[in-house]
Amino acid sequence: MTINIEYETDKELKLDYENIINRVINEAVDYAKCPYEAEVNVTLTDNDEIKEINAEYRNINNPTDVLSFPMLNFALPGDFDGISDELENDVEDYFNPDSGELMLGDIVVSVEKVVEQAEKYGHSQERELAFLVAHSMMHLFGYDHMEPDEAAVMESKQRQILDNLGITR
């Protein structure tokens, strides 16, 4: 498993963000029963930068807490069996040629939003960062939250990942 983390802001998180991100991503990959060695890229940035990315890719001219850029198109969320033929037929599109790992996608997190939302929701910055990364991992596995039933499934899976890690506050 390769997890690339880039810290691209002078806004400081006073916690072991690398450890949190690594633990959450590894737990999410295990939880989803991903049958491949995988790669995920994570960028920690500030509100100004994530606002630019949000405007460019989603036409929303506001900062957001996290953005997800999945590399896979699941017919059913988290169903690796359902995409195995596609992966086997288009290896060069989905697997890193250097490592052979499945490229799940990219995550961009606003450090400022981690701090703001932890305070707003009354929990630790560790929990907020872990939640945002777990949320984004669910998007990388094809889950969404546009409909209430989808949101409930996604929320349940995110919560289970954090509970498995003992990150509850």
Question: What value does the average pLDDT take?
Answer: 95
Q: What about the largest sheet?
A: 4 strands, mixed
End-to-end separation in angstroms reads 27 Å
Strand ordering within the main sheet = 1-2-4-3
Number of DSSP strands?
A: 4
Structural commentary:
With 169 residues, the protein is an alpha/beta fold. The protein has seven helices and four strands; from the N terminus they run E-H-E-H-E-H-H-E-H-H-H. It has helices at residues 17-31, 47-58, 80-89, 91-94, 111-121, 125-140, 148-165, and strands at 2-7, 38-45, 66-70, 102-110. The protein has a four-stranded mixed beta sheet, sandwiched between helices. Helix 1 (17-31) packs parallel to helix 6 and helix 6 (125-140) packs across helix 7. The relative contact order is 0.20. The mean pLDDT is 95.
In short:
By secondary structure, this protein is of the alpha/beta class.
Q: What is the topological layout?
A:
Layout: E1 2-7, H1 17-31, E2 38-45, H2 47-58, E3 66-70, H3 80-89, H4 91-94, E4 102-110, H5 111-121, H6 125-140, H7 148-165
Parallel strand pairs: 1-2, 2-4
Antiparallel strand pairs: 3-4
Helix pairs in contact: 1-6, 1-7, 5-6, 6-7
Name its key features.
nuclease; Endoribonuclease YbeY; 17% strand; alpha/beta; rRNA processing; four-stranded mixed β-sheet; hydrolase; EC 3.1.-.-; 169 residues
